[in-house]
């Protein structure tokens, strides 16, 4: 059985892997996720290849604190009360800053950002020193992995996996356009 909270040595190993340009699998609130350093284009290409996902769709970023994500989005036109109401937990589509590389945002002008309270994500983000790429661990068109057996069936044993439990959510996070308040995914 996986521990509820990741062990410190496992967090350090995961962060070392991220810094070397590696891809990791880690638990999120509801499904297993794939992540990498958003500044490492080769790592993101590996995630996209594993998922068989086109780059033009873009990919979201996750962190344990909103402050860690600020370099990637602009608050212009965003109601601060909306941020306070929806974070942590909801994925918000925010105006991307010029610092967001095209390989992260795809063909979009905005960037999807989620602030998480999951202990694994909070610890990884804290020790890593910021924001990570986050996407569900599944090939395109397949259901996201909700257990290690499915994760290994999809990707084999080629990924470094942070051993910790998933959170209790049954559905992926809600996605809201922060400019309009429109729900993009319930």
From TrEMBL:
Location of the YrdC-like domain: 8-186
Pfam families attached to this UniProt entry: Sua5_yciO_yrdC
GO cellular component, one term: cytoplasm
Record localization: Cytoplasm
EC number, UniProt record: 2.7.7.87
Transmembrane segments: none
Class of the enzyme per the UniProt entry, highest EC level: transferase
SUPFAM superfamilies named in the record: YrdC/RibB
Superkingdom to which the source organism belongs: Bacteria
InterPro entries xref list: DHBP_synth_RibB-like_a/b_dom, Sua5-like_dom, TC-AMP_synthase, TC-AMP_synthase_SUA5
Keywords from the UniProt entry: ATP-binding, Cytoplasm, Nucleotide-binding, Nucleotidyltransferase, Transferase, tRNA processing
Keyword Iron-sulfur: no
One example of a Gene Ontology biological process annotation: tRNA threonylcarbamoyladenosine modification
One MF annotation (Gene Ontology) recorded for this entry: tRNA binding
PROSITE patterns reported in the protein's UniProt record: YRDC
Catalytic activity entry: L-threonine + hydrogencarbonate + ATP = L-threonylcarbamoyladenylate + diphosphate + H2O
Family classification: Belongs to the SUA5 family.
Identification of the protein by name: L-threonylcarbamoyladenylate synthase
Organism: Acidithiobacillus ferrivorans
